[in-house]
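pinging the channel bc i need a second pair of eyes. not urgent but kinda urgent?? the chain im working w is below, pasted from the shared doc
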Amino acid sequence: MNAIYLRRQQQIKQQLKAQEIDNLLVFGFENIRYLSGFSGNAAYLLVTPQNNYLITDYRYFERAKDESYQCEVICRDRDTQTLGECIKQLLPAGVTGFDAAYVTVPVWQEIRSQLQHVQVSPVLGLIEAQRAIKDEWETNCIKKAAAIADIALADMLNQVSVGVTEKELATELDYKMKKLGSDGVSFETILLFAKRSALPHGKPSDAKLNHQDLLLVDFGAVVNGYRSDMTRTYVFGEPTTVQQQMFDTVLSAQQAALAKVKAGVDCKYLNHCSDEVLFSAGYQDYAGKGLGHGVGLFLHEVPFINSKTDYTLRAGNVITIEPGVYLPHLGGVRIEDDILVTETGFEYLTNAPKSFILPC
């Protein structure tokens, strides 16, 4: 693991040098974890040409020493030393960048008051761009998370019956993932019946399942901080003509996009391939906005796959492909998979079957 974190830190320092930035203050917890290995919060990372300082306090000091790589861990006494004073003592000369998207105004104002004679520069997206290309260890973590989710879903589907509630199934799914070794849930599980399945990010309720209801489940597991994200949609019993058409169209839209996935393909084009199928079936007013996103330490991270994002896929991207159709007062269908982009195509990381009908 030492070599993995050393390589990441060296790559960031090369990027900083190219932008004529000498030091970098990192505030985002996921970015700190990516560069140091430390999985807690209440920490700050200072990257300099010669050293990496992980600043925390007595609550996390021993844990930070155990988890971090290639870092000198600093235990700050919060009662006697402000964060700005601590950084000032450690900061060498030169231009200092800061992880601007993840620091609050009050925290930055306090730090800046101690660095009045230091040239500072906001840095946006630098670490995230590096994180977009997953190494083998990261990919394996997402694979393990996806495998946990696959097994948990299969177990949960055995408990589907008339009268079961959304909350009951969602709770069982979350419990099973944790029992199988997930660090937690990738995000609050979305599990919705009938017309509520048309809520793209609805919250499980006490609604009960009935015959011919749609059942949409969007969920994920976590391994070493890396998340999976999968959606499957089912119908409980024989589908109506409209339900079957929705499912077949969404599945065709996903397959149309997947057929074009490989390194060098533009994200806008993938989005267009999916939309073309959905729109030609008459769902242009009911289709979800955006086809997918990167997934890793963040649930949603670079690259984003939509009609506006300029990004060319690269080998090592882990992305979701998740077209959806949402008809108010009737229901929604979404099918989502995590895939690893390769030079010649892609590899599925989520492998749960995409069958539609759940027998009563």
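so The chain has a mean pLDDT of 97. and The chain has ten helices and 19 strands. — does that match what u expected or am i reading it wrong
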